Amino acid sequence: HGMLGYGAIATHYPVEMPATMQENGYVTHSIGKDHFGWNKTAGEHGGGINHGYMGTMLYDGLPETNENDDYDQWFKKFDPESDPMATGLTFNDYRGRAYVLPEYYHPTAWVGRHAVSWLNAYNSSQPFMLKVSFHRPHSPYDPPKRVMDLFDPDEMPQPCNGDGWDGRFALNFTGPPNPAIWCGNVSWEELKISRQAYYASVAFVDEWVGLIRAVLEERNLLDNTLILFTADHGDMLGDHYHYRKGYPYESSSHVPMILRWPSSMDAREVSIARGSVLDSVVELRDVFPTFVHASGHPIPKSIDGSSLLTLLSNQSHVNEEWREWIDLEHDICYNVTNHWNALTDGKIKYIFNAYWPSEQLFNLTADPTEMHDLAGDASYQSTLMLWRKRMVNQFEDEGRGPDWVQNGQLMKRVKGQLYSPNFPKKELFREWLGHTRLPSP
Asked: Is the N-terminal amide bond of 137 cis, ω within 30° of 0?
C-alpha cells in the first residue's frame, strides 16, 4: 500500500482484498474498525471509504472531530444525554479503569452484537467474507467492571526491563505523566491497573468471539467457514519503559495469527493436526492471498504475502520454499527519534534505529522478552553482520536510494519518509491539498 507510517490512506488501490473477494463472488462486509478514511460529504453524516466492502458498520475509535461513524451516530440516538467517553480516558491513554456506562453501550459489545446479528440474518446463497474488527484492547483500556474484576492487579506480570539498553527511556516524571506518553517510568501501582484493564479488554473481546463462533455453529456454517484471528499490533504496557505501539519490540510487533480451517478442507488440503503451532514466520500481508486462495481463485501477482493455506499441508518442500524472514518498519511516530527498520525470522531480530543511527540484535529463542541486546557482544558479531547485510541487500533490491543505503552501508536518517513510490501518487497530491484525513496514532 505504500505507507511506511501514519499517513493518509489512499481512497483507492489498484488491487484491494474486499474488492477482489467481491469480484470472486463473495458478499463482503466489515463491522468495527477499518481506518480506511472518511468521506465527510457522503450522505447526511458522512461515510467510511469502503475499498470494496459491500456494506460497513463502523466504529473506528476516533474523535468525532475526525469522523462521525456508525457507533457515534447510534450512541447519540440511543442516549443523547450521555458521553461515550464518560470513563475519562483518551484514545491514546496509558491508564486503565472500568467502563462507567452500562455494558450494552461499550464499543466491543456494539461490534459483537452487530456481527452476531449480521450472521443470524444472512440468507444469501453466495459465500461471504465478514471482517469483524474490535477496536479494543487498543486504548482506552476500559473493560466492563465485571470483566475487570476477574483479574487481580497484584497478579499482573511485571514489565520486562532489559539489562541496561532501555534505561534511556526510563524518564522520571515530577508530576502526573501526560496520559499519551510513549515512554517513561510509571509507578507499578498505576501500571498494574493498566495491565489489569488491558487483560480484561482482551477477555471481553474473547467473549464476543465465542458468541460469534456459536452463531456459526448454530447456523451450520462453522464446518464450511475459514476463520482467521489476528491483530494489527500489540501494546508495550510499560515493557522496556514504552507504551502503546509503533515499536520493533515483541510486545508491540508480535501479534497472534490463528487459523481455523473448516472440516470441508480436511481431506483436500490439510495434513497437520488441529492445534498445531508452526514456527514458519508469517505476517499480515499473508491475509489477502490466504482468503483468495481459499476462494479457489488465482492470487493476484501484484500483491505481497503468501497463502497460509500452503503451510497446512506439512509438505517438506513447502516449508523449504516458505520465506526465511520478514521485514518490519515504521516511519516517525510519537518522537523524531522513533523510526526504524527490522528483520526477524522469529529466532533472531535485527533492528536498525535510523535516527541515531544504532543497531540492536536479540536472540528471541533464548531471550523472548528482549532483555539482552547482543549488538555489542563479540560472540554475535558474525550474526550481526549477516542480518545487517540482509537489510542492505533488501534496501538495494528495492531501490530505496542513497538516503537509505550507500556503498553497502545503512544510512543515518534524521528525516522520515512517510510514503514509498508504491503509494498512489494522486493521493499524495490530495493530502498536500489537505483533503484527506490523517488517522490518529
From this structure: yes
